[in-house]
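Continuing the batch. This is chain 6 of the set; chains 1 through 5 are on the previous pages. Same settings as before, nothing changed between runs. Recording input and output for traceability.
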Amino acid sequence: MDVPVLLAVQGPSEPALVAAMNATDGLAVTRRCGDTAELLAAAGAQVGSVAVVSASHLGIDRVLVERLHRMGVRVVGVASPEDMERVSALGADATVDSGAGPAAVIAAVKGLGRRGAEVPPPPPLEAPSGGGQVVAVWGTAGAPGRTTVAVNLAHSLSAWGATALLDADTRAPSVAQVLGMLEESSGIAIAVRAATQGRLDDAALDVCLLDVGNVAVMSGLTRPDRWREVPAAGLDVVIGRCRARYDFTVVDVAGGWDPEDSGFETAFAPARNAAQEAVLRACDVLVIVGSADPVGMHRLVSLLADRPRVSGREIVVVTRVRPGVGGPAPAHAVREALARFAGVDQPVLIDDDRAGLDAALMAGEYLAVVARRSPAVRAFEDLARRVAGVPRRRERRRSARRQAGAA
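Output for chain 6:
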């Protein structure tokens, strides 16, 4: 049976390539595509199993490769000698020198046609061995304080290692506002754009990060309607780069959970929650944030019942713990409710230090900088120790006493 080929190549060599393929036993050009839309439509109609794509013609990137893979189509990238490494890193199944002639392209197509129908997802640009931890700060819908937790957690983690903070919230990005950063451009959009094109190296990553109090901060989108600029295929690469470079990468993502179909249909258009799903899939530690009021606790318990399963550790954080909505012993009430209705023990509780948090917000600073003695600062530090796997101060003092006694 012939291997059906989709051809997206332009120039004087295209007619010769079509003729050579159609004259080759086992191959047949089923569609000659002029642009990306036509290529995806042909792939969606399942009239081809291999796509030959010219990098100079279509501007091939990781998003296009990922969409073709979702529809079961393998990709042969035709690129100039200086561009072959970049195209290969985008996840193309084979890469051919544009000057090698039709024989090289035919050999690559026939090699892919013998491998079967299963198509692997595009690999990361650089698969790091080991690396630091990725910490996703997620939680309920609304405003339980996810960004406040992410910002102050990143600042506390910087005491234990090099830390980056990424604003990947595509619905309500606000890290820049909390830290008083100028919104001249979106760091996350620039980084993801470079990643999808295969051009995100250390120098390009540095352009997207700004040092704010020993934390490398990547600002979020300037407007939520730009969410299409953060596809999962590029965000995966950005997270991988940060993981290889930093001990801790804290990522602030949109709250709530509304899983979308991630199969065949989403290959035609970007998924609204793709960034959220990419971060949850990549994280080593998932921090789930809810607020201590009755509405917030109901949302948190419901989210914990329906949350996606992640491979990393999970830590539940409850913010705005105060007597006004939790009775005379709000901490006890929150712990009891989570243990009874969600099976959660040892949550991290953050007191509602409204004065300190307001002062930090108005100053565009971390809470520990403007209110060092705030009880919320101690809670953020305890959360950072749990993320980093560092014993609490009390435990370390006891350990030192035991060592002294043994001596």
